[in-house]
Description:
By secondary structure, the chain is α/β, with parallel strands linked by helices.
Amino acid sequence: xxxxxxxxxxxxxxxxxxxxxxxxxxxxxxxxxxxxxxxxxxxxxxxxxxxxxxxxxxxxxxxxxxxxxxxxxxxxxxxxxxxxxxxxxxxxxxxxxxxxxxxxxxxxxxxxxxxxxxxxxxxxxxxxxxxxxxxxxxxxxxxxxxxxxxxxxxxxxxxxxxxxxxxxxxxxxxxxxxxxxxxxxxxxxxxxxxxxxxxxxxxxxxxxxxxxxxxxxxxxxxxxxxxxxxxxxxxxxxxxxxxxxxxxxxxxxxxxxxxxxxxxxxxxxxxxxxxxxxxxxxxxxxxxxxxxxxxxxxxxxxxxxxxxxxxxxxxxxxxxxxxxxxxxxxxxxxxxxxxxxxxxxxxxxxxxxxxxxxxxxxxxxxxxxxxxxxxxxxxxxxxxxxxxxxxxxxxxxxxxxxxxxxxxxxxxxxxxxxxxxxxxxxxxxxxxxxxxxxxxxxxxxxxxxxxxxxxxxxxxxxxxxxxxxxxxxxxxxxxxxxxxxxxxxxxxxxxxxxxxxxxxxxxxxxxxxxxxxxxxxxxxxxxxxxxxxxxxxxxxxxxxxxxxxxxxxxxxxxxxxxxxxxxxxxxxxxxxxxxxxxxxxxxxxxxxxxxxxxxxxxxxxxxxxxxxxxxxxxxxxxxxxxxxxxxxxxxxxxxxxxxxxxxxxxxxxxxxxxxxxxxxxxxxxxxxxxxxxxxxxxxxxxxxxxxxxxxxxxxxxxxxxxxxxxxxxxxxxxxxxxxxxxxxxxxxxxxxxxxxxxxxxxxxxxxxxxxxxxxxxxxxxxxxxxxxxxxxxxxxxxxxxxxxxxxxxxxxxxxxxxxxxxxxxxxxxxxxxxxxxxxxxxxxxxxxxxxxxxxxxxxxxxxxxxxxxxxxxxxxxxxxxxxxxxxxxxxxxxxxxxxxxxxxxxxxxxxxxxxxxxxxxxxxxxxxxxxxxx
Length: 918
C-alpha cells in the first residue's frame, strides 16, 4: 500500500491540470463572446472620447497627454483583440466532428488562457475613462490664428508643393516669390489656415507681416507677443538680449514661422530664431517676397515662384468678381468680359480690381467703353491708378538706385507682348547714358546685364526664348504701371508716348507731343505736316515697322536734345532725312534692317555720337568720306550682315583712326580686308561679331579671344582657326579658366566651306551656345580627338556643356560630332539633315532626362538607322524626335544679302528671306 499514496497524488495532480485545461477548452466560445462584447463597448467609448477631443481642438485647445496615451492604447488594443478573435473563431470552427475536443489542443489551450487576461485589460482601459475630467486644455496662446481668406482660384499647385515641403524633414526654410499682386500672401494665408486641422505635430504657428522698412525690433515685438514673454524679461533689454529670450522659448518648440512681405534679407539668428539646420525639433520658416535675391540671401532651401494664372483660372476669378447678375444682364457681356480679362494677363490682383470695377456695367456699351479705356488709358480705369498701380509700384520704389529705375521705365517704351532683345536694350541704355560711363562698352554691357538680372529677380522683367534667341518681356500690367510712373502718376500723360499699330497719325495729334520726353512709334506712320513740328524735350525717338516709308519734311529739325534715334526694322525706308546730320546731341543711331542706300554727309557733324548700328542693310552704298574717321566719340560701330559695297580696307582704316572705338561688329567679303583686320591688333581685339562671306582664298582665320559671334560662309579654302593670344600681351591668365582662350564665343555659324575637315578649335569655347554647320562637303568630325590637345584643358573637361542648339545640314562625310559621350546638359534642340554617315549621337544616357531638351529634328530613315549602346538611351530620346523631309525649308541662322555670280551663291539667294533649302 506504500506505493498507492504517491500514485494517487500524481493522479490527483494530473486530474487538476487536465480539468483546468478542459475548462479553458469549454469556456473558449463564451470568453470569445465576452471579449467581443467588451471590446465593442470600449470602441463606443473611444468614439465618444475622440469626438470630444476633436470638438475641443476646434476651439484651439490641445488634448491632454493622458488622453493621447489612452487613445493610442485603445487603438493598439483593438488591433490585438481583432487578431485574437480571428484566431479564436478559427479554433471553434476546427473542433473534432461530433465532439468538443479541439484539433489543436496546445493552440486552443494557449488561446483559452490568454482570453481572460485580455478581457481584464479591455475592462481596465474602459474604466480609465471615468477618471478623465478634461480631454483637452487651453493652449498658453492659440496654436494658429485663422486668417480671413476669400475664395481662392488657381493656387492649388504651389500650395501642395509648399505643404509637401513642410512635411519634408530635410527642408527647413522655404521661400515663396513672385511679382506683386500674384497671390503670394493669399498662398501663405492658405498654408496658415491649413494648420487649423489637427493633422500635424507642430507646437505653434507664428504669422508676422514684415513689410518695409524691415526692422529687427518690429519682428521681435511680434514674436514676443505670440510667445507671451513677460515684461520682466523684455523691457529695457537690448536687441541681443531680446533675441536670447526668443531663442530660449523657441528652442524647446517645434514651430512654423510664416513671414509675409519681406523686401530685404532678414537675419533670423539676430531675431532669435534657432538655426534650423541644427534644430532637433525640425521647425520651419516660410516667407514671401517679390525678389528671388531675397530667397538666395536668406538661404531658402527651396524657392517656389508663384506664376500668373492660366486662362481658365483667370476667367473664373474675374467672373467671380463681376458677378452672375452682371454677366447675365446681356448675351454679349460674357464675350466682352473675356476681352477685359485677357487685358489682365492672369495677374490675380488686376483681375480682382478690374472685375469689381466692371460689376456694375450692365450694358454692352458700358463694357465697350471700358475696354477702350483699359487698352488706351489704363491709368484712368477705375481702381488702377489708386489701388493696383501703387501696390505694384512698391517693387519699383525698392530698386536700389535711380539708374536701375530709369532702365526699368525705359522697358515700357516697347509695345505690349514685345520680345525685347537684351543686347538691343543694353545698347539703348548705353546710348541714353543711363549706365555708368566706362572706357569700355563691354564694361557697360556687363553693368546692363546685371541690371537686367536684378529686374528679373524682382519680377519686373520676364525672360523667354523664341526661335533660338533669348528675349525679355514685360507683363502688360507691369508695363502699364511703368508708363503710369513715367507720366508722374498720370499728371503728364504725354511724357512717354508709345503708339502701336495706330496706322496713320494725324497732324493735330503730333502737335500734342511737344511735352514728350520719349516717343516710340510701332507699325505706324505720320501724315505730311504743314510745318516742322517742335519737340523741345524729346530725348528718345523710335520708329519701327513696315509702315514708315518716309518722314514729314523737317520732322527732325527741332529735336535739339535728341540723344537716341532708332529707325531699325523699317524695311521700306529708303532715304534718311538730311536734318538728322544736325542732331548734334545724338549719341545713338540705329538704321538696321532698313533699305537706306546713302548716309548723308552731314552725319559727320555728330561729334558726340557713341553708337552707330548699320546691321542687315542690303542696299547701303559706300559711306561718304570722310565720315567715320571724324566721328571722334564713336565707341560702338556695327555693320553686321550688311555686305559693304565700298572698299573694306578704307572702312577699316577709318575705324583704326578712332581713338575711343572698342566694340566692333564687321562684315567682310574679301581676303584682303580680312587680312587688314587680322593684322590690326586694335581692331581685332575690339571685334565682338565677325562675318566672313565669300572670301574664297581665305584658308586661315585669326580670331581675337574676345570674339562672341562668328559667321563664315562660302569661304571654300577655309580650313582652320588661329587664336591671337600674343595680341597686346594677352596670356591665358586673362581668362576665367586656363586653356579656354575663346571664353566669350557663344555663336558659331559655318556654311559652304568645302575644304573644312573639323572644328576642333571649338574645345577652347566653353560658353558656346549655338552651333550651326551646313554644306561643308569635306567635314568628317566636328571635334577630332587627336588634334584636341587635352593637356591644355581642364581635366574635368565637358565639351559643349552649355550648347543650346546644334544644327548639322548637308554634311555627307560627317561621321561624328565627337568620339566620346557627352551629357549636353543645356541642349534644347538638335537638327541633323543630310548627314547619312552619322550613325551615333554622342549623348550620355542622362541627356534624355535633361529637362531642357525639347526636340531632335531629322529624317525618319536616318533615325531608324541610328546605332544605340543600349535600349534605355533610345527610349529616352525617342519622344523628342520630330521627323522632317530633307527638302523641307528650315530656318537658317543668318541671311547673306549680297548676290554674287557664283552658281552656288545664286541658288542660296533664291530662297525666301530667313530660310534655306537643304
